[in-house]
Design the sequence.
């Protein structure tokens, strides 16, 4: 392990950080995880804010995550739909990429991983 | 003088991400940098109650204009910044308002790089680096891309500061995802990235994963095209 250590820059130990929980989906899924991401103090590279996939997917349902970001460039076919009738939707801030999964649906977990056949 | 790198867009290996680099371009880049710096002085910050990420990231989009040969288009003309974010929630705001890579048309790419790193070889963070490349048959890109970037944002790779960004490239017959790191010569890091990719993408054991250093990518291009003077981008 020690041979793999990389140069890291020293950072102060973060002081208390408050994490507001507005939604059950933001609670960690196991007891070794803290709300707001687990801080590991001993990983290579120093302190990191780590989130697993399931937690990140859970945050997708928060109200902030659904609002239109400020300054989103208008790129037809990318940030706005190409066809006319759906244009209005996009202008009203509707989601183009809402294919996945409410946080409570069971397929956000690891077993939703599909088998890949390449 | 559109340069050698443009042709890399053709080789389908995700190399399209880093061309340009003639002396002329670097001047142009300077002015652009200034603009970007001034507009970006205010770095993204997590909002109240949001979940901060280890790093800020920027989404980029690039597309080759159809009907024009690659050699007449500079990379910078074709790449657009979509936006930067600092928290999990801000990430979803952008991601949810962008179409999925599998639904993109034409020869296009999404790039997600740490804020301040351009998705180009020439960036200081990339010039000694390389990337893991995975070719995907059609239909898999959206899901793989999502898993890849969630792993990156969530710091699943455990390689310190090494990760630079990720790219998904939509091509005619296949799609390619790649993840870039800073130090191509650091084998412990590249091995760890490979193993993490296998885990987070749930790839079958026989999936071919290829590591390419950026300098090799440039060299390969130069050899193929017989350019005498390879300097510029590397």
Sequence:
């Amino acid at each position: 392990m020690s041979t793999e250590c990389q140069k890291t820059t020293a950072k102060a130990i973060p002081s208390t950080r408050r994490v507001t929980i507005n939604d059950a989906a933001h609670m960690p899924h196991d007891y070794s995880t803290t709300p707001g991401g687990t801080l590991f103090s001993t990983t290579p590279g120093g302190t990191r804010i780590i989130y697993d996939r399931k937690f990140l997917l859970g945050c997708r349902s928060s109200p902030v995550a659904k609002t239109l970001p400020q300054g989103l460039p208008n790129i037809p076919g990318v940030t706005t739909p190409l066809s006319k009738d759906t244009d209005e939707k996009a202008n009203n801030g509707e989601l183009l990429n809402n294919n996945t999964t409410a946080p409570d649906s069971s397929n956000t977990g690891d077993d939703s991983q599909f088998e890949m056949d390449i | 003088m559109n340069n050698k790198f443009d042709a890399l867009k053709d080789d389908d290996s995700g190399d399209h991400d880093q061309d340009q680099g003639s002396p002329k371009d670097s001047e142009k880049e300077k002015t652009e940098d200034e603009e970007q710096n001034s507009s970006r002085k205010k770095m993204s910050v997590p909002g109240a109650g949001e979940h901060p990420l280890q790093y800020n990231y920027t989404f980029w989009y690039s597309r080759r204009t159809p009907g024009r040969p690659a050699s007449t288009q500079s990379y910078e003309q074709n790449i657009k910044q979509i936006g930067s974010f600092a928290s999990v929630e801000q990430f979803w705001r952008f991601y949810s308002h962008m179409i999925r890579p599998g639904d993109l048309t034409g020869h296009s790419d999404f790039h997600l790089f740490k804020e301040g790193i351009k998705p180009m070889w020439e960036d200081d963070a990339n010039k000694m680096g390389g990337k893991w490349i995975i070719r995907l048959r059609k239909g898999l890109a959206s899901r793989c891309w999502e898993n890849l970037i969630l792993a990156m944002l969530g710091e699943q790779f455990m390689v310190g500061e090494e990760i630079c960004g990720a790219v998904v490239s939509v091509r005619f017959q296949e799609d390619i995802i790649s993840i870039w790191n800073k130090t191509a010569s650091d084998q412990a890091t590249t091995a760890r990235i490979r193993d993490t990719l296998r885990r987070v993408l749930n790839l079958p054991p026989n999936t071919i994963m290829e590591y390419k250093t950026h300098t090799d990518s440039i060299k390969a291009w130069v050899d193929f095209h017989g350019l005498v003077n390879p300097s510029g981008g590397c």
Q: What stands out?
A: Residues 84-90, 100-114 of chain A have pLDDT under 50 and may be disordered. The longest strand of chain A covers residues 38-40.
